[in-house]
Hints:
This protein is mainly alpha-helical. The chain contains 14 helices and no strands. It has two domains: 2-101, no CATH class; 110-314, MetI-like fold (Orthogonal Bundle), CATH 1.10.3720.10. The protein has helices at 2-14, 19-34, 39-58, 65-88, 99-108, 110-145, 147-162, 165-176, 180-203, 208-216, 221-256, 265-274, 278-306, 311-314. Residues 1-20 have low confidence and may be disordered.
Amino acid sequence: MSDAVSAVAATMASEPASAGAAADVAVNLWLQAGASPLFWPAIVLLVALACYSIYRTAALEGSRWVGTFTAAIFGLWVVFFWEVVVRCLDVSRVLLPAPSLVLASLADHAPKLWGDFVQTVGKAVLIGWALGCGLGFAVAVAIDRLPFLQRGLLPVASLTSAIPLVGVAPIAVMWFGFEWPSKAAVVVLMTFFPMLVSTLAGLKAAGKLERELMYSYAASYTRTLVALRLPSALPFIFNALKVNATLALIGAIVAEFFGSPTSGLGFRISTEAARMNMPLVWGALVVAAVTGSVAYALLVALERRAAFWHPSIRGSK
Length: 317
């Protein structure tokens, strides 16, 4: 093992300091460690330790952060064993790159991935998500206010959920060009119907006694909508917002497969996969996954503030 450490030190001294060189050093250390006869028994003990630690953490009682902490521990153990198995079995980086290689690729290509993030999330996803959710909400209120629209407009709107994404993306590119507006159009189409259906269901969630009370006060439709029905619909609306946050990201990335400028997470995934540069492909996937998770968490936090009175939120600590 001392010879392996010396070789690793020589490698670090001869090569420039970069994330890629650090990944190569990690490879050598893992291969040398895997040659030890005590390595796999130690892995078995670590598996048992991982199961026990996750079990004990999940059994804790406290605030909602306990669940987040449990998920974090589980994720760290998964990444650790992923690294161990890939290194010791010498799995090709084309099939499954090790997490250290993915992190090295993230560090080496951080400016490029940041540009992809701005192109996909900062433009197509945010604009398309806002337009799609806003349009779905407005149409839902119009349908609720004018019942005859429910018979004619709602069936037509439901067709948007049946249109395949891979079919509409090339059409959007032909209509709006290769820049972000075509991807935003796809996102609008994907997020419109979930918001429409959820808002309609939420507007009908107000209790009958409460509606009759507003009627006895001679409250107008607008007053009843603002004071009673929209607050009752908030949990449904936030559910649609959370679902659409992930749908928008998926739709924008897939739409970029069918034509995009020289940036974007979908463009990066497709081009780097063609080059067999799988660590960078996984790095782009990590950026997309973290973005979706952060967006979902922010919407959950906003929901807790806006709909704090709802039993599902009051019951959680």
